[in-house]
Amino acid sequence: MPRLHELPAGEAVFVDANIFLEHLLNSEPTCAAFLQRIQQREIHAVTSVAVLNETRHRLLLTEAIRRGYVTKPDRAAAALHKRPALLRHLTACDDALNWLLETPLRVVSVTVAQFRLAQRLSLRYGLLTTDALHLATLRAHRLRHLASADRDFVAIPRLILWTP
Fold this sequence. Notes:
The chain has 164 residues and is α/β, with parallel strands linked by helices. It has a single domain, classed as 5'-nuclease (Rossmann fold, 3-Layer(aba) Sandwich), CATH 3.40.50. Helix content is 50%, strand content 12%. It contains 7 helices and 5 strands; from the N terminus they run E-H-H-E-H-H-H-E-H-H-E-E. Helix 1 packs across helix 2, helix 1 runs parallel beside helix 3 and helix 6 packs across helix 7. The longest helix has 18 residues. The model has no long low-confidence stretch (mean pLDDT 94).
């Protein structure tokens, strides 16, 4: 399986949320170097509104845990749902997202047609809903490269998975 740092210059690649999260939350060097290549326009990065939503959600929950607003990480979303006023204090997630949106990253929308395709892809390849939606988005934009730490994509024909 090819590694993220081996992705040839000039390629267009769809970037999954876990790549952004590995950089933003864990300072993963491979992901940081990959994002630097995007900044330098060496790689043409594409992502979707769905990926950004997934990224923000995870950043939000992580920030709430780190600030001590939530004591049970596995119940973070439920805890914030019960105390929505806390959300006003969670701004680091949006700072990180705004930084990401300032990179030369092409953000594409997700359509109903892609959602319907995702339903079929989920059944065909045994993918969970979000992963199937990412695959449908890749196909809609004729992309064959995917940057992701998610190994569920390994068995997808005509898809090249680049992992950290």
